[in-house]
Structure prediction request, 307 residues.
Amino acid sequence: MDEFTVAGLRVVREAAACGSFSTAAENLGYTQSAVSRQIALMERAAGRALFERHARGVQPTEAGRIVLRHADVILGELDQARHDIRHLATRPAGRLRIGAFSTAMAALVPRAIAATTARDPRLRISLREGLSARLLTAVARERLDLAVVTAPDTLPSGVVIEPLLDDPLLVAVGSAHPLAGAVSATPDMLRDERWIAGSQEPSATLLGAWRDPGREPRIAFVARDWVAKIGLVAAGSGSTVVPGIAVPVLPATVAVLRIDHPSAVRRTVVAYRDRGAAQPRGAFIEALRDQAADLAAQVRQRLRAGA
Prediction:
C-alpha cells in the first residue's frame, strides 16, 4: 500500500505554490520526471487526483487542498524539530511556546510578550494562532507550553486552566450607524442588524452567545479574516461582534457598544500542563494578567468616551 511521504508532501506543496511541475522541479533541485513520479505516488496514496492538469499549469483539486492543509502542519513541525535539534548546544536560557486564539493575538499576547522579554531578553518565544480546541490539544500533547483560550467545557487529561478575564462581547458599528455613540444596546435593539460573521452558522460565531434562540440573525457577509470584518464595518456594510481585548487595535472609524445581556461575555483563560518547569511560564502568565487588567480598563474608557 502506498503511503504519504515527507518528500512527496514537499513536492505537492511546491507544485501547488508554483502552479507548475517544471517550476517546482527547478526550485527543489529535482528533475521534472522525479517531481511527476512523486506526485503520482502521492495520488496513489490519496486514492484521488491531487492536481488538475491544464495547458498553462496545474492547480490543486479538492483532495489536493486537503493534503496541502495537512502538509503545512506536518512540514512545519518537522522544520521546527530540525531547528530545535540544530540549536541544542546554543539554546538560550529560556524557551516558551505560546498559542492563542486570533483576537488574543491582537493586543493581549503581544503586550505580554513585550513585557516578558523586556525582563529576560534571552527568552526565545514561538507563537501559534488557532482555534481554542486545537490549542488545548497541542498543550495536552506538549507541543505548546501554554495557550490563551476561551474557557472549555472539558479539559484534556493533564491540562489545567487559570482565569485571565471575563471579556465582554461588544458590537462594532460604523461611525455613521444610529447606535454609534451609545454605551450599550439590548439584543432586541440589535434584532434587525446586518451582521458580518465568520460563518453562516450563528452557533459557530460570537453571535451564538447572546442572541434570541427564537430568531435567526441576518448575516449579510461571511468574512473569516479579522481585518476584512473591521473593514466592512468601517465602510458601513454591517456590524460585527468583537471581544473587549481587541478594542485597543480598532480604528477610530469604528464605534463599539456593550451588549446588555448576561451571556454577552467570553471567559478567557490560560491553559498549560500540570507538570513541567514553571519558569518562564509563570512570568509570562503574570504578564498576561497585568495586560488583561490594562485592556479591561481601556475598554471601559473607550465605552465612556463614545457615550
